[in-house]
Amino acid sequence: xxTGFGPAISKTDIRKMSGxxxxxxxxxxxxxxxQDLARWLNPIVSGWMNYYGRFYRSELYxxxxxxxxxxxxxxxxxxxxxxxxxxxHAAWKRTTRQYPRFFAHWRWxxxx
Length: 112
Fold this sequence. Notes:
Blueprint: H1 11-24, H2 34-52, H3 61-78, H4 85-98
């Protein structure tokens, strides 16, 4: 018996978006600044959030956390002083607290 319908993102779409994020290879773009990364990523990620997150927002949380992990990896590669995890984690917390809307997905998932 069919009792309900949950309009969420499909598993194939999540896999496709994960593949897209993986193909960006963010940690290799150390020549870009934070502003350049935000200018590049925000239209794409906010489009995903608006389209897929309209009805079932929590299905996107793992993907958005994965983007944060890639951003931390980028940070650790770009700034030599942040190579250790504890320093990178402290810098991440400080950055997300100071600029909570710098990246579009930080509205929903600021932690990594």
